[in-house]
Please model this.
Amino acid sequence: MIKQIILVALGGALGAVARYCCTIWLPKSAALGSVFWVNAFGCLLIGLIMGLITKNVVHEQWQLSLKLLLVTGFCGGFTTFSTFTYEGLQFLQEQRYFSFLWFSFASLITGFIATVVGIYVSKFL
Model:
């Protein structure tokens, strides 16, 4: 269990640093902003990593370690949007279309509402 936590922590730290560097290096005046590009790249990255891990059947323990380090850790620290899209894609691949729509809609709406509530509550703290 400790090894798994260390892998996630290491990957998450590297992903967070990579995200910070992207926000510095990407132009602030870009029409879509740096968050858009970080999210898009994170989605590409999680797709590549998961595709390569599942395509190249490696020892099960190595597969778990790579997922924890690169997917849960790095991609999670870089952008949670990549995880959101990957989980949504799993619903589509399982032909669970209603679950996909509900998951997507509920995640976006709940995220916006939670952010608004957080900003509102912070005014009283």
Q: What stands out?
A: DSSP finds five helices and no strands in the chain. Helices lie at 2-25, 33-55, 60-78, 80-93, 97-122. Residues 97-122 form the longest helix (26 residues). The mean pLDDT is 89.
